[in-house]
Design a protein that fits this description.
alpha/beta, binds uridine-diphosphate-N-acetylglucosamine
Length: 379
């Protein structure tokens, strides 16, 4: 059997790593081995957004890189479809496996189906209900056309059934990201926090020699970083509140760096002694920092999930989430606070001094990749 799996952007890499490992393990004893081809669309191309994760997570170099790079959504999706179609014609796989909700997920699932190739979506069924999010459109289209929908939780199964997808196509397998977390936890926990900070400082920041209590901030969603008013008020909150209580470690996504500079907010943050700006971190470094963080303020979906498993109190800087299972009401560590400063402030105060409460939703057990592969083999 030939399987092509696709990655495009940073959050895909930790989802594909365990799947590739499951194929490798299967091939050790299988009579009919799986011929696996890894395609990287090249949506994320910086060392720190891409190569670093391949190295750290032992992902073999992609067999094919489409070199798509940056662009508008239509440019990224259009270029990916044109290039991926050529790959499919040449390789003629039985299955295309896509993960997550990035532009590569949409572009490659549509291209596969138009070539009459079976498509499997890992992390199917997540719904924010927010059609202003490009990721929501990617999820809806991919799930509507895929042959096999592998979900991280039962809420996602319900979402798919409500949309009229037949039950035979859906399989609840658990969260594949947690396979990667479990696999890397021991290695990450041995890292030294001060070294991580000093090795990842941005520009000419001063070397740090000790750190006590700290918060981690990550932002990249257009809804938070593309409007000057929103980004400025969030930045003020980080400076005027969080940075007064503890050290703020802010890992800067390329989109956010661009916007902070465009809006004239960059210098002001750099001057704040209690805010440390860090480059995009590698997987182990982020995991290590997350393990001891007093609080996470983020708009990332993956971090919400990791905070749930590690028990780090998490303020999710969004009005909705496609991952309700990570919310406090479902036993998780996260609270939705949007970008309204009053709400953020109230919830921020409530989370201070809250003890860590690690929680594992059903089947977030580190064995999801194995179940994904079995679902494909048994299809
Ligand atoms: C993408 C995903 C999002 C995911 C996020 C994680 C889509 C629609 N969005 O958003 O779901 O949560 O990745 O990072 O697929 N850039 C660089 N270097 C890079 C990559 C990007 O400088 O290696 C710059 C681009 O020039 C662009 C900006 O960062 O201006 C945003 O990149 P883009 O790929 O459009 O989407 P993300 O915001 O990263």
């Amino acid at each position: 059997m030939k399987i092509i799996s696709v990655v495009g952007a940073r959050p895909n890499f930790m989802k594909i790593a365990p799947f590739i490992k499951a194929i490798k393990n299967y091939n050790i004893s299988a009579k009919n081995k799986i011929n696996h081809v890894l395609v990287h669309t090249g949506q994320h191309y910086d060392d720190r957004m891409s190569d670093l994760f391949f190295k750290e997570l032992n992902i073999p170099q992609a067999d094919i890189n489409l070199g798509i790079g940056s662009g508008t959504h239509a440019e990224q999706v259009g270029k990916t479809m044109i290039e991926f179609e050529k790959v499919l014609i040449k390789e003629n796989p039985e299955w295309v496996v896509v993960v997550g909700d990035v532009n590569a997920t949409l572009a490659c699932s549509v291209t596969a189906k138009k070539q009459h190739i079976k498509c499997c979506h890992i992390e199917a069924g997540l719904r924010s209900g927010d059609m202003d999010m490009p990721e929501e459109i990617n999820r809806l289209v991919t799930d509507r056309i895929s042959d096999l929908l592998l979900t991280p939780d039962k809420i996602s199964v319900e979402n798919l059934l409500k949309e009229g997808i037949t039950k035979e196509k859906i399989k609840f397998v658990g969260n594949i990201m947690i396979d990667t977390l479990d696999e890397n936890l021991e290695k990450a926990s041995k890292l030294n926090i001060i070294n991580i900070i000093n090795n990842n400082l941005i520009e000419n920041s001063k070397i740090v020699d000790n750190i006590n209590k700290y918060a981690i901030i990550t932002l990249h969603r257009p809804s938070n970083v593309d409007s000057k008013d929103v980004l400025a008020s969030l930045t003020d909150f980080f400076k005027d509140h969080v940075a007064k209580d503890m050290t703020v470690l802010w890992t800067i996504h390329p989109r956010t760096e661009k916007q902070l500079k465009t809006f004239g907010l960059w210098e002001n943050i750099l001057q704040n002694k209690n805010i440390i700006l860090l480059q995009p971190l590698g997987y182990h470094d982020m995991l290590r920092l997350n393990l001891d963080a007093s609080i996470m303020l983020t708009d990332s979906g993956g971090l919400q999930e990791e905070c749930t498993v590690l028990g780090t109190p998490c303020l999710t800087l969004r009005w909705n989430t496609e991952r309700p299972i990570t919310l406090k009401e479902f036993g998780g560590a996260s609270v939705l606070v949007g970008n309204n400063i009053k709400r953020i402030s109230e919830e921020y105060i409530k989370t201070l001094n809250v003890p860590r409460k690690p929680h594992r939703p059903e089947l977030w057990d580190g064995k999801t990749a194995q179940r994904c592969l079995e679902a494909i083999l048994n299809y």
